[in-house]
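Co-fold these.
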Amino acid sequence: MNDIPLTHILFVSTALFFIGMYGLFTRRNMITMLMSIELMLNSVNINFVAFNKYLYPDQLNGIFFTIFIITIAAAEAAVAIAIIINFYRSHYSIDVEDSGEMKW
Amino acid sequence: MNYFSYIAFIPLPPLVSFVLLGLFGRKYLKHSSGIIGTIVLLTITVLSLLTAYHYFFVDGKVNGVYQSIIPLQYHWLQFSPGVSIDMGIVLDPISVMLLVVVSFISLMVHIFSLGYMKGEERFSTYYAFLSLFTFSMLGLVVSTNIFQIYIFWELVGISSYLLIGFYYDKPSAVDASKKAFIVTRFADLGFLIGILILAFHAETLDFHTLITTLRTAQSPQSISITTSSFLGVSMLTWGLTLVFIGGAGKSAMFPLHIWLPDAMEGPTPVSALIHAATMVVAGVYLVARLFPLYSYDVIALNIVAYTGALSALLAAVIACTQTDIKRVLAYSTMSQIGYMMFALGVSGHGGEHGLGYMASMFHLFTHAFFKSLLFLCAGAVIHVVHSNEMKDMGGLRKLMPLTHIAFLIACLAIAGIPPFAGFFSKEEILLAAYNSNKFIYAVGIFTSMLTAFYMFRLYFSIFHHKEPQVQIHHGEGSFSMKLPLLVLAACTAFAGFVPLSAFVTADGIPLKTHLDIAFSAVPVILSIVAILFAARLYRKQNDLPDRMATSLGGIYRSAYKKFYIDEIYLFITKKIIFNLVGKPAAWIDKNIVDGFMNLLAVITTKFSALIKGLQSGKVQNYTLYFFAGIAGLAVLFIYWWK
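Predicted complex below.
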C-alpha cells in the first residue's frame, strides 16, 4: 500500500473535484447537480483520509472529519431533495433554468 | 410667605381641564365639558379673589409699601451662574390685579358660552381652547422671569390663533387666524431680540434682578448698557423699544394693529375674552412690568407714549366709519389700549408723577369690565339677528331689554360719563397727560370725544334707528347668557369706585387722588356733545349721515378703508418681499437644493441598474461567482500573502 505515493491519490481527488464542479456548472437537472456536489464532497473526503494516513498515521482527526462530512452530506441531500420535490410540485419541472424568479 | 403657596394652584387647573377636555372631550364629555370648564374657572376665580384679599389687605403691605412676593420659584434651565430660566410666581399689585381680572372675565365668558355655543359640534374643543388660553394668560401675569413671560406670551398667541380659527371651515376665519399669528409672531421677534439685549447686558433674566441692576446707576451692567450704542442710540433704548414692539404686536398698536379687526372672525365670547379684556392688555402689562426701566429711559418712554396716542386717535377715527359692530368694538379696543399705553408713556416713576402708571392700570381694570360687557352684548345681539352688520339691526331695545340696558351702561362707561367706571380711569389718564404732555392731552381729549360719538352711533344703530327687522323666537337668550351681562353691568357701573390708586402704583406706595370738577368738566361736556350729535344722526332714520359722509369725501373713504394700512402691508409683502426674497428663495429651493437631492437619487438609480444584473436568480451563476471568489482568494493567499 505504501507503494502508492500521496500525489497519486491527490490527483484522483482533484480530478474528482473538478469533475463535480464541471457537472455543477453544466447540468441543468437539479438531481444531477446534487450528485455533482456529492462528488465534490467525496473528493474532499479522500483528501482528508489520505493526508491523515500519509502525514499523521497515529492520529484519527482526518477520519473523524470524513465521517462528519458524510453524515452532514446525508442530511444535506435530504434537504436538497425536499426542496427539489417542492419545486417540482409548484413548477412541474426540476430544471434549474425554470427557477429564475428569485432575483432583484 | 408660605401663606401664598396655594396660589400655585391658580394657573394649573385650567391646564388640567385643557388636557382633559382636549383628549376626552369630544368622545366622553360632550355635554359636560362646558360645566367642567366653568367649575374650574369658578374655583380659580375664588382663589384669585382670596389671593387679592390677602395680598391687599393682610400680608402684602410692609411699612406702607406693597412688596413683591415670590411664593414659588423653580430653577428650570441654568445657563450660567447668573442667567437661568426660572418658572415662578410673583405677587405684586399689578399681577394680583390681573389675576383677578383674567380669571373673572374668563369665568363670565365661560358662563356666557354655555348658552352662546350650545349645540356647537366642537363644543368641548372650544372649552379646551378657552382653558388653554386662561392657563397661559394666568401664567403670563405671574411670571417672575422675562423668559417665562415670553413662553406664556407665545402660548397666549397660539391659543388666540386656535380660537380665531375656531370656525375653520370658513376661509375668512382661517385667514384671520393666520394673519393674527403671523403679525404677532413678527412682533415677538422684536420682543425676543429685546430680551436678549437686556439679558446680555444685565446678565440675568430675572425681572427683579434685571430691574434693580439696570437702575443702579453705578453698577457695571448699567454702565455697559447705557454706554454701548448702536446707530447712535443706547442699547437700553434699543432693548426696551424692541420689547415694546412685542407688546405693541400683542396689544394691537399702530402699525401692528391690522390683525385685531380681522380677529373678530372668532366666536364672539372669544372676542370678549381675548381681543378685548385680557390678551390685548398683555402688551400694556409687559410695559408696566418693566416700567421702572422704561421710566429710566426717556426715548423709549416717548415711543410708548406717541405710539399709544397715535393708535388711540387712528382707531377712533376708523371706528366712526365701520359698519360691522364687532369691528367697531375691535377698533374701540385698540383705541382704549392706546389710552393705557400713552398713560404709561407720560408717567414717571414714584410719587405724584406715577399717576399715569396708576391711571393706566386703572383703565385696564375698568376697560376689562365694560369692553367684555360690550362684546357679550354684541354676542347676544348677533345671536338674535344672525348678522354682524349694523344695517340688519335697529330697534332692538324692545326685543332685548336687558341687553339694551347693559349695552347702554357699557357705552356710558366707555364714553366717560360719571358715575360709570370709565369716567374715573379716563379722568386720571387725561390728568396725567395734562401734567406732562399737552399735545398728548389734546389727542386724548379729542379721542375721548370720538369714542363717545362712535359708541353711541353703535348704540343708536343697534337699539333705535328703525323698527326691528327680526322676530325673536327663543327669547333674549338663555339664563347663562343673561347672568354674565347682569354681573358685568353691575361691575361696569361700580368698578370706578374701587380706590385702585390705594393699591396699584408704580412703586407700591399708595397714591392720593382727587377729582377736580373743573378739570373733569371739559371731557365730560365734550362727550355729552358727541353723544347728542350721535343721537341726532342715528336715533331716527335720516339721510344726514350719508350726506355728511359724502361731504367729507376722501377723509371718510380713507377712514372707511382703514387708512389703507392693510393695502400697504399687502403691497409690501406681496410686491416687495415676495419678489425680492420669496421668489429667489423658492428658485434656490427648487433648483439648487432639490437639484442636489435629485442628482444623488439619479446617481444611485443608474449605479444600481448597472449592477443589478449580477443578481440574476440563476443558481449556477451564483455558484460561478462563488468559485471565482474562492479561486481569487486562493491566488491571493498563495502568491501575495507572504
